[in-house]
Specification:
By secondary structure, the chain is mainly α. It is built from 11 helices and no strands. The protein has 2 domains: 1-53, Arc Repressor Mutant, subunit A (Orthogonal Bundle); 56-221, Tetracycline Repressor, domain 2 (Orthogonal Bundle). Helix 4 (55-79) runs parallel beside helix 8 (128-143). The longest helix is centred in the first third of the chain and has 25 residues, at 55-79. It starts with 6 loop residues before the first helix and ends with a helix.
């Protein structure tokens, strides 16, 4: 992000970032250059590079700012009373509502997000600190819920819930239904299904099935 903390520098950096997001919405990430961004922000190209070394740095600044700003919104969602299902849905809804003004930006970044080796992918090493922050919220959801989660499943559950969230966000970004109603329905039904499965996961007859599911998870993760 920008290299000086003066008010003027912060304002310039913010203007460059907003110009970049506007260009990504209207012209896509791949077709936008730093020169385009500098022109839209009303600064010299060299000045744009002074504050952000690349387009990727601009996106990372966007990701980090979004993560920081969402923390109190997620906390408020989890502070509300309700079942695990209700609170899981509200946690993810808080993120959808936050990103609504920048849904076009996320759509422009879809190609980068699919490749786990791309630095802007939510699965990359570069975005791991943001991902870890997200995972801690799912851990808190589990810790403060009314569910009893089997000991063997508990370590994997935050990651599974995070993956469920990412599927919902991907659908929401690409959803062309009015007001993304299809995504809201999928989130509602998905949260209900996840909660139902977790509620029966402690029953004796589910032990072998749970072990198979955990073996599958380890295989997907590449763990022998």
């Amino acid at each position: 992000m920008f290299k000086r903390e003066t008010p003027k520098a912060a304002a310039t950096a913010h203007r460059i970032l907003e110009a970049a997001l506007d260009r990504f919405r209207s012209h896509s990430f791949d077709s936008t250059s730093m020169r385009d961004i500098a022109k839209a922000a009303g600064v010299a190209t060299g000045a744009a590079y002074y504050y952000y070394e690349s387009k990727e740095a601009l996106v990372m600044a966007f990701y980090q700012a979004a993560s920081n700003e969402m923390q109190p919104l997620i906390q408020a969602a989890l502070n509300q009373q309700g079942s695990f299902e209700d609170r899981l849905r509200r946690l993810i809804e808080a993120k959808l509502n936050y990103f609504e003004p920048n849904r076009g930006v996320l759509r422009a970044l879809l190609r980068s997000g699919i490749d786990p080796k791309h630095p802007l992918s939510p699965f990359s090493d570069e975005t791991k600190p943001i991902r870890d922050t997200d995972l801690r919220w799912f851990e808190k959801l589990i810790e403060t819920s009314d569910l009893t989660v089997p000991a063997d499943l508990r370590p994997e559950l935050p990651g599974l819930l995070w993956m469920f969230q990412m599927g919902v966000i991907y659908l929401w970004v690409t959803d062309e239904s009015p007001g993304q109603r299809r995504t809201r329905l999928v989130l509602e039904l998905g949260a209900k299904a996840v909660t139902g499965l977790l509620r029966i996961s402690n029953l004796p007859f589910t032990g072998s099935l749970r072990r198979q599911a955990l073996d599958l998870i380890q295989a997907v993760k590449g763990v022998e």
